[in-house]
Amino acid sequence: MGAKSLRQKNKELEKVYAEVENELGRSASDKEVADKLGISVDELNKLLSEVNLSSMISLEEFLEQNYEIGVTTAPESREEKPEGYIEMAELREILVDAIGKLPEKEKMVVSLYYFEDLTLKEISAIMKVSESRISQLHTKAILRLRGKLARHKSILSD
């Protein structure tokens, strides 16, 4: 299977999470997402395992790729484009808020991975579940966060 179709799957999952969570106004369960996709929870888990490698991208990278925001620390660029910094700060707030609303286990994985710089292996030891399960939780969290950020992206680009 080529990377292209994986990317498409990733995008589709992202979209479904965003749609379902928009409708519900809360985090969607695996069953709710699977139903929306017309597949079983087992198939959803398989799909999440397939796309999880492509979602192992840092949130910083994600923000930089999706929002043409200069995240440099050079003072001269900061003066040239201060609005980029304002947007970045706003996005961080949105992100922190979105992370706060994640289901408990996903929130823990994201916090340990991004803020404590722990590896998935270390997180699996702390949470006492398999590394592949941690990877899945991470993938779901990223899909949810991307969905939330995508909504704000349209607001920011106005």
TrEMBL record:
RNA polymerase sigma-70 domain location: 119-145
GO molecular function per UniProt: DNA binding; sigma factor activity
Keywords: Cell projection, Cilium, Coiled coil, DNA-binding, Flagellum, Sigma factor, Transcription, Transcription regulation
GO biological process, one term: DNA-templated transcription initiation
SUPFAM superfamilies: Sigma3 and sigma4 domains of RNA polymerase sigma factors (SSF88659)
Residues forming coiled coils: 3-30
PANTHER family registered for this protein in UniProt: RNA POLYMERASE SIGMA FACTOR FLIA (PTHR30385:SF7), SIGMA FACTOR F FLAGELLAR (PTHR30385)
Protein name (database record): RNA polymerase sigma factor for flagellar operon
